[in-house]
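On clarity, I found the account of how folds are encoded harder to follow than it need be. Since the whole study asks how a given chain folds, the encoding of that fold should be made plain. For the editor and my fellow referees, an illustration may be useful. An entry of this sort, consisting of the sequence and the corresponding backbone structure tokens, reads as follows:

:::
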Amino acid sequence: MASHRRPKQPSRTRVTVLTTAAAAAVALSSQAANAAPSEKPSKDEVKAKVDKLYEEAEKATEKYNGAKEKQEKLQKEISTIQDNVARGQEELNELRDGLGSMASAQYRSGGIDPSLQLFLSADPDDYLDKASTLDQLSGQQVEALKKIQEKQRDLSQQRSEATKKLKDLASTRTELGNKKKEVQGKLSSAQKLLNTLTAQEKAALAAEEQRATRSSEREVLSGTGTPASGRAAAAFAAAQSKLGTPYVYGATGPSSFDCSGLTSWAYAQADVAIPRTSEAQTGAGTRIYSQSQLQVGDLVFFFNDLHHVGLYAGNGQVLHAPRTGTVVRYESMGTIGGPFMFGVRV
């Protein structure tokens, strides 16, 4: 006989769970449909991020320059020490050879007891002369031994110094490699950001920079700044001759420059040697803290860590190598991106 039982009804709890899940699914579907797509950063936002990366790259560049300068200095010092050690070793060998000759002569003359040599000598006066010579040779031996000992100590010290400098050189090379990678990483990130811009946006940024450069050029031409000295004028003129030359990190000219590479090269053309890095260049002369006291050709430093330097061009303008992707140009000191710290009159 067939069963006439009613089908089992779902429990109230199960209905509630299913209803809630369905409502949640509908809500999520609605949110997904109405969600705005992730917005592409604006041209100005990209520029701000790129400028920040370029600033960080320039900081690393100055550290790279410092490590490179230290490496070159250590290599010269090590080469000098090694040359001195080689010459010292030759002198030591000569001293030893001389001592050996003296010892051989003494051995040959001392083969017979000195008291018997007097009786056997056909000429006692001649023997006494020889005996005097033997005493003199003995004295020379003592002096030779002293010189050998001094030379050995000197060579040992120089070899020890060379060993320390070689270790320092190895660590400096490691630092140099790390800084190079850091710079390249920052520049690569900046380039990726720039690649997100359209051709029109890139052209707009380039036009903005050109307008700013032309404005700075007009300010320089209209100014009446006096050079700090004849050499400062010569350095400034040398830098002016490189307007339009590309910025390349680690470069010191004449076909490309970084910021401190330009300033050190410019002063070298005026027969003035200043340090390679921006931080070291702060000690190249008298500091001037008031912008109103600056004269054309003075070094001007920016950012709290002093990682950027240029040449004062007068009328509130600076002639400098700004960053990767730019060229040597004039720029207002107010648009460098970091605060003016002080100037230095070389």
About this structure: Confidence is low (pLDDT under 50) at residues 1-5, 11-37, 115-121. The helical segments are 12-34, 43-109, 114-120, 124-194, 199-222, 230-240, 259-269, 278-281. DSSP finds eight helices and six strands in the chain. The two ends are 117 Å apart (CA to CA).
